[in-house]
Specification:
single chain; alpha+beta; Arc Repressor Mutant, subunit A; D-Maltodextrin-Binding Protein, domain 2; 3 domains; 6-stranded mixed beta sheet; 3-stranded antiparallel beta sheet; 15 strands; about 25% strand
């Protein structure tokens, strides 16, 4: 048995939390992954994992071995990458997760440039407003908007997006144009963005002259996907709060009108995040650098170059879908 292969199989089981998911992400039969871990335990003379019919848990010895094995695997990847960079362009598969409206309005229109620059990199996009488990689902990085809460991830701040409040002209003709945030609570219909992760409706946020106001929508309609959320506003179902880049085409076409512009909330942060424990491959590095270069203009963001270590999940506080 190849010891490095066995170490990689063991590390993937620890990260994925199951033999089945580990085998899927490694593109190997589950029996092969199981045999590799068994061989590694026999080779070390210690039990690394405790298996039951319902779950896999890591023993104390397994946790210790995982940390040391991960350092070895990272060092090996670094050696391979350093020599590979001398003779070839970054290559291989990148798995990226992104929210619905950001995929449609930002990332996909920009991707031809990235694909032309890096013809040996293949991309698989997971498009969803639902938060993913980067490690368990073997996702290389996610693009999301909102505060960060999980310190197990590394985040690169891309900038800040503009949030606007808007509605269809037909809706405003029937219900009137609100002149202040308080008027939204008096007879107006609000279309809430409902977090796909928590199931909670996101509040409408406003700010003027440093004074912040938050309105928790008593909504008749809630939507948990950003493209559908915007479509509900275009259909005249009510007032929404969304990102300016997502609503730009509808605003230009006149199918949506911005309201309460003096009360626009504070800009909303965007990040690209990836697991801290994972080696940063050359293909991931060039993709992140490209995002930092290409996305700000498309999103209407203020570019930021700082890298920082933070929490991983962009709070659902503002629809990741809207934001991501």
């Amino acid at each position: 048995m190849d010891q490095l292969q066995a170490m990689r199989a063991f590390a993937r089981v620890v990260e994925a939390g199951s033999f089945t998911r580990a085998a899927e992400t490694l593109d190997m039969p589950m029996a092969t992954v199981s045999k590799a871990v068994q061989w590694l335990e026999a080779h070390l003379g210690t039990q690394l994992l405790q298996r039951t019919t319902r779950r896999v848990t890591v023993t104390a010895e397994g946790q210790d071995y995982y940390g040391k094995a991960l350092r070895v695997l990272r060092d090996l990847d670094d050696v391979d990458a350093s020599f590979g960079a001398l003779r070839c362009q970054p290559r291989g598969l990148l798995r990226v997760d992104v929210g619905g409206s950001t995929a449609r309005d930002v990332l996909l229109p920009l991707l031809p440039d990235f694909m032309d620059r890096h013809p040996d990199i293949r991309l698989e996009l997971g498009v969803s407003d639902r938060a993913v488990d980067l490690v368990g689902d073997n996702v290389d990085c996610v693009i999301r908007g909102g505060p960060l809460e999980d310190s197990s991830l590394v985040a690169r701040r891309l900038g800040e997006a503009v949030l606007i409040t808007c509605a269809a002209p037909a809706y405003l003709h029937r219900h009137g144009t609100p002149r202040s945030p308080e008027q939204l609570g008096n007879g107006h219909r609000l279309v809430a963005y409902v977090s796909a992760s928590s199931g909670r409706a996101m509040p409408f946020r406003f700010e003027r002259e440093g004074v912040r106001t938050e309105l928790k929508p008593a909504h008749r309609l809630g939507v948990n996907e950003s493209n559908a959320h915007l479509a509900a506003a275009v259909a005249g179902l009510g007032v929404v709060q969304t990102f300016a880049y997502a609503a730009a085409q509808a605003l230009q076409a006149g199918t949506l009108v911005e309201v309460l512009q003096p009360w626009r909330p504070a800009p909303y942060p965007f990040h690209v995040v990836y697991p801290a424990r994972r080696h940063v491959s050359a293909r991931l590095r060039v993709f992140i650098d490209w995002l930092a270069e290409a996305c700000p203009a498309r999103l209407g963001l203020q570019p930021r170059s700082a890298w920082r270590r933070r929490t991983s999940r962009p709070t659902a506080a503002r629809p990741p879908s809207i934001s991501a």
